[in-house]
Design a protein that fits this description.
CATH class of the largest domain: Alpha Beta
Strand content: 15-25%
Number of strands: 12
Number of helices: 9
Distance between the termini: 40 Å
Number of domains: 2
Order of helices and strands: EHEHEEEEHEHHHEHEHEEHE
CATH architecture of the largest domain: Roll
Largest sheet: 7 strands, mixed
Radius of gyration: 23 Å
């Protein structure tokens, strides 16, 4: 299962009535926008969150794979443009979720490229955007609080009754199934990534040498939110680190050159290196295949534009 966010605006009611998503194949200038072409990625069973005028107002399930189709007569537009169509089963929310009200919660899960939302919570122009599983789960959590659960403890009995009444409510069922499938996909991919990664790095942290399995992390260079499915299980998209150094790497306090040279952010003072298990002249062994992923991390996650270079003998 993959998930998407569709930016429908004025076309929402028309497309909902037809039970479809539809976009042209080209824009008026003859170009092929990424948000149109992405329609071809939609497969039967995929989930779509519908964004209209600043809010998520519905969730749908694709009933079949995307197909090429002419513009339906009832949709806006005078010409019979070639386009892409997805048949979808719409489930409207009782309480829409305004994205700008939750953008601080959502921001950590927005991809660097092709994000559906801007930093202020407004929607980006375009039609269809990918929705990574981390973002999807956070959105579903917010949607559930607004549409399924009653948070106040004193209303627990009422909340139970609400859930009982809605146990066959299609929206509740769709949310529950979507959460389960998204979590299962992530767990399986992350487990596979770990299984492939640890042997390549001698089952030890490449900075401090810790070998205790419970403390080792399979650290992504290009994070889940920015990766496509094959990259999420690519053993060259990361490195083995202990929990402490994984946190430093994940949050951009250190990076690794394609040559293996460790770079430490200036936000960590040199006299504090021992506190973080760091030292001058640090270097790790790397594979040529790590290069595009380590470079991506350095360009997009590392906190410093001007790097501090440290070297250490290569870890065998």
């Amino acid at each position: 299962m993959n998930s998407f966010i569709v930016m429908q605006g004025e076309t929402y009611q028309q497309e909902k009535k037809l039970g479809i998503l539809w976009s042209p194949q080209q824009d008026k200038s003859g170009m092929v926008p990424h948000s149109y072409k992405r329609m071809t990625e939609v497969k039967k069973g995929d989930r779509i969150l519908h964004y209209v005028k600043g809010a998520i107002i519905a969730i749908s399930r694709a009933a079949e794979d995307c197909k090429k189709a002419k513009r339906p007569n009832s949709l806006e537009g005078a010409d019979e443009a070639d386009g892409y169509k997805v048949v979808a089963e719409y489930r409207e929310l009782e309480t829409p979720v305004a994205i700008h009200e939750h953008i601080i919660e959502l921001a950590p899960f927005l991809p660097k490229k092709y994000s559906a939302f801007q930093e202020d919570g407004s929607g980006n122009p375009g039609y269809l955007y990918a929705c990574n599983e981390e973002l999807l789960l956070k959105l579903l959590e917010i949607i559930s609080v607004r549409n399924v659960f009653i948070k106040e403890a004193e209303q627990l009995e009422l909340a139970i009754e609400v859930v009982r009444r809605k146990e066959h409510y299609p929206l509740v069922t769709l949310i529950a199934e979507t959460v389960l499938e998204a979590k299962t996909k992530m767990e399986r991919s992350e487990q596979r990534f770990r299984e492939l990664l640890l042997p390549k790095w001698n089952q030890q942290c490449q900075v401090c040498g810790v070998q205790l399995g419970a403390l080792l992390k399979a650290s992504y260079a290009k994070p889940w939110k920015d990766s496509v499915d094959p990259e999420r299980v690519d053993p060259y998209n990361g490195i083995v680190l202990c929990a402490n150094h994984d946190a430093l790497y994940r949050d951009g306090y250190m990076a690794i050159n394609p040559s293996g040279t460790l770079q430490i952010s200036k936000k960590i003072a040199e006299e504090e290196y021992p506190l973080y298990g760091l030292a001058k002249r640090m270097k790790v062994a790397v594979y040529p295949e790590n290069e595009p992923f380590f470079r991506w991390h350095k360009n997009n996650v590392f906190l410093d534009k001007r790097k501090r270079i440290l070297n250490r003998p290569t870890v065998e």
